[in-house]
Amino acid sequence: MSKYTPQYSALGRVNNMQQEYPTQKCKYFFAGFITALLITLISGTVFQLCLYSSNPVVVSSGAARHTWPAPPPHEEVARVARYVVHISDWASISTISTAPPIKGYPFGNIISISDGPVTKATGTPYAYLTRMDLSGKDLLDDARATLSLSEAQSDYCRNHDFDPENPQCARVLLTGTMLEVKNGTSEADFARTALFSRHPEMEFWPAGHHWLFMKLNITHIYVLDYYGGANEVSVDEYYNTHL
């Protein structure tokens, strides 16, 4: 037999299989990789569809982070007002200044608020204020105030590319008087739970600042949640509307 004649011994077959194995291994690797990639893409698409369909809204306040359902339709103005107030962790407060350089001028400030724990919306904004603060001093002289709340503090407007001034990024303006909630009352206990559950660091603020629980006694409500100008919502309708 010539030395060039192919050998079909058992050893020869093993050698053949060893030569073919890397090719087979590559085929299996790429097939598995493509399958895994397709599964990942499909899973991601399904997740995005679910996310989009439920439209969760996220609001962060310090270490606290809460997820809310999508806002009500803009036609349901009173519900939109209740929704924006409940998801809001802060607001702009406007008072009449008592500071000598700007006495008598409108004065805006930022305060942390809560209308209740995450699972209980009351519609009444509570705040934790000190008379050492400029707004706290103003309220001691004149309790009238307006709270401005914007849906822009959640990620809803950003996710929809709405500028904070876009009417579709809802705004709620609550006017009334800021009243002190007396310590030792059940309402003070509720205010503490409402605020501390959503602003955990409040519990550790300096006691020497003599913090007060306060609430806005609402007398007038404006809501801008779509094109066409602001809508007035009666206080009765506001409180009788549920999320």
Structural overview:
Helix content is 36%, strand content 26%. It contains six helices and nine strands. It has helices at 10-54, 77-87, 134-141, 156-159, 186-198, 235-240, and strands at 57-61, 64-68, 90-96, 106-114, 126-129, 144-150, 171-180, 212-224, 231-232. A six-stranded antiparallel barrel has the order 3-4-5-8-7-6. The protein is globular.
Q: Quick summary of this structure?
A:
By secondary structure, this protein is an alpha+beta fold.
Characteristics:
243 residues; alpha+beta; six-stranded antiparallel beta barrel; 6 helices; 26% strand
Uncertain segments of ≥5 residues (pLDDT<50)? 43-54
Helical element count?
A: 6
Radius of gyration: 31 Å
Query: Widest sheet: strand order?
Result: 3-4-5-8-7-6
Largest sheet: 6 strands, antiparallel, barrel
The beta-strand count equals 9
H/E element order: HEEHEEEHEHEHEEH
Shape: globular
Helical fraction? 25-40%
Indicate the proportion of strand residues: 25-35%
- Which structural category fits the helices and strands? alpha+beta
Report the end-to-end length measured between terminal Cα atoms: 93 Å
- What do the pLDDT scores average to? 85
